[in-house]
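I need you to check the entry underneath: sequence plus fold tokens. Let me know what the token row says about the fold.

>
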Amino acid sequence: MNIAATKLDEPKKTCATCQACCCRLEVMLITDTGVPERYIDIDAWGGEVMARLDDGWCAALDRETLLCTIYENRPLICREFEAGEYECLSERKKYLNE
């Protein structure tokens, strides 16, 4: 089987077609992007992080659509996290057994 051909046949991973696996990661707020205060928490070391719900999901995630409710004001780390790249695929594998 041609591995390159198999890769081309796979559907592209995008935020719109994802199951929001990255929204379970801890997100440190290292720049001001306008994240609303209600979504900001303080970690054990005093740093600002995205608030997470009791089940570990980001508090800014719309649970019905699995899309970010503050997309235009999302943290820098979320902006730099690229759908379909190594980190994305690693998180998907962990949660979706891909």
